[in-house]
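Question thread 4412

I'm putting together a teaching handout and wanted feedback from people who do this every day. The idea is simple: show students a protein as raw sequence, then show them the structure tokens that encode its fold, then repeat with a second protein so they can compare. Below is the first pair exactly as I plan to print it.
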Amino acid sequence: MPAESFDIHYVADLARVRLTPDEEQHLGAQLGKILDYIEQLRTVDVSGVDPTAHAFPLVNVTRPDEAQAGLTHEDALRNAPQPRNGLFIVPRIVE
């Protein structure tokens, strides 16, 4: 698609951005090059290529959901800055 076949003002309105005349010229030229490249990609014969969503196969890396022993009370409070009476002391956030 040549750069002349789209309206940069319409595209800017869709994006809800205001462009200066210099920006319109600069960004319009860049968008034209991008559209030209997309047109070039459409000419590539991909008839023997299977459709795919990712270049690499996705593998589930999660572990099984099995119950495990958690932290002990002492371990949980070990790095607390101000533990008191076995509790976390935190700054007041509501006045």
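The second pair follows. I'd like the answer to focus on this one:
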Amino acid sequence: MADTLTRPNPVNESRGTRVLLIGIAVTFLLLFLILPLVLVFVEALRNGVDAYFDALVEPDALSALRLTVTVAAIAVPFNVVFGLAASWAIAKFDFRGKNLLLSLIDLPFSVSPVISGLVWVLLFGTHSFLYPFLQEHDIQILFAVPGLVLATMFVTFPFVARELIPLMQEQGTTDEEASLSLGASGWQTFWHVTLPNVRWALAYGVLLCTARAIGEFGAVSVVSGHIRGQTNTMPLHVEILYNEYSFVGAFAVASVLALLALVTLGVKALLEWRYGNQLASGRRH
């Protein structure tokens, strides 16, 4: 009892300590988050609004924008299907190799994106065992859209599954068992019971997955071949423009990526504010 009375309360610090901690946090946010974003837009608009929009409507920039959206639009739905299937299997069933599957889902978090890009080069490159088959059937994987999609899928597929698995495990199987006992089929149970229970966590995972797919650089850089107007996504186009000393163009395209990141941040904050309890329950594990 005496120990409880004398132990300092961590939420009852002096005003000076609180001001110091808040000041340190705000200073770091200003230096490492707000200031870089502001500088991106300042550099993008350095030569005026006309130069800014001219850089954005330049054919190679438009091609990079279209390719980035295309790759994300293909990769994200695949990850949604995989995330739902893997989460349902792991959370609702017991089977041998379950822990191994969980570890494999986390693999892209621990592997460098450059390494994942090199894996696709080894698998589909000119020295792979698949290359004669691909060449015979005129199938282009590397230095084309399929290679970009595969590289993006590899680095983004844990995001949906990792949002759903803890939430589904916490919810258990009671609702599904009740639905099945009332005569519903497996598909009806999934569509009317399981999916509504995880819809906001799924939306959050899709949001994070999309943001990562749009901004991915390392993996797509290895498999793209850097063909201007054909295989350059927006991050790659920014790098090329910057290396060519076209700073206004580079920062103009970078500002679009920054705007997309800000939109993602806004939607993320909205989801956390509106459905914070459901999202938080999925991260307690």
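Top answer:
Good format. For the second protein you could add a caption like this: The chain is about 80% helix and 0% strand. The two ends are 32 Å apart (CA to CA).
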